[in-house]
Amino acid sequence: MTHKKDQALAAARGSRTRRFGALAVLVSGGVESAAMVAEALNRYERVYPIYIRKGLLWEKTELAHLKRFLSAFQTDGLAPLTVLEVPLQGIYGHHWSLGKAATPSSRAPDTAVYLPGRNLLLLSLSGLFCSIRKIPGLWIGVLKGNPFRDARTGAMKKIEGLLEETLGSRIRIIAPFRGLDKGQVIRRWSDLPWEKTFSCLRPKHGRHCGRCQKCAERKIGFRAAGVPDPTRYA
Hints:
With 234 residues, the chain is α/β, with parallel strands linked by helices. The protein has a single domain, classed as Rossmann fold. The chain is 39% helix and 12% strand. It has 8 helices and 5 strands, in the order αβαβαβααβαβαα. The chain has helices at residues 2-12, 31-43, 59-70, 89-92, 118-133, 153-167, 182-188, 213-225, and strands at residues 20-26, 44-53, 82-85, 137-139, 172-174. It has a 5-stranded parallel beta sheet, with helices on both faces. Helix 3 (59-70) links the parallel strand 2 and strand 3. Helix 5 crosses helix 6 and helix 7 (182-188) crosses helix 8. It is globular, with a radius of gyration of 17 Å. Mean pLDDT is 92; it is low at 1-8 and 10-16.
């Protein structure tokens, strides 16, 4: 398995002919973010990963996993991780994402994990980052079936227009995996080091809790992909 993972990482380091210039990628610690980084490194000369810290319950563990995952790509094409800050404690109040209410369980629907304005905030802040650095493209990890309004193609096109109108920058916002579910993403990049990724709402001692809605989604994704789940659940 290690040999196969090394081959997958080598492919992402540039075995294909480079076709484009610079790209920014909005990343968390999850499966789709990991796959986006690998795919972006196949398509672009320079990839800028951006993590936006909002003061939420899981971010310390998530960010640690993300840094470990990115360290696997030893290539000049991958820029250092940029961490931006947009604290939401004063806005969200007694929200479950801050540990102020019960975490959505494994049986909760997707709508239960809604974070108000999440994509609007992520795309606006990272769009400013791209504008200042003249980066013409921005990827976000929206998957098939995402039910939230700010994940719709129309909403993203409006954010593109707002960035152009207010900053004078034409930044194309793309959801490259919009037509895929989590299982299809895992299957497509089956040899990535998934054990370095993280998708949990209430981590326990640096591990996935195994009981929240995101852990359940992760387990289902690996089963659907037919790929062994390397995750250590608490």
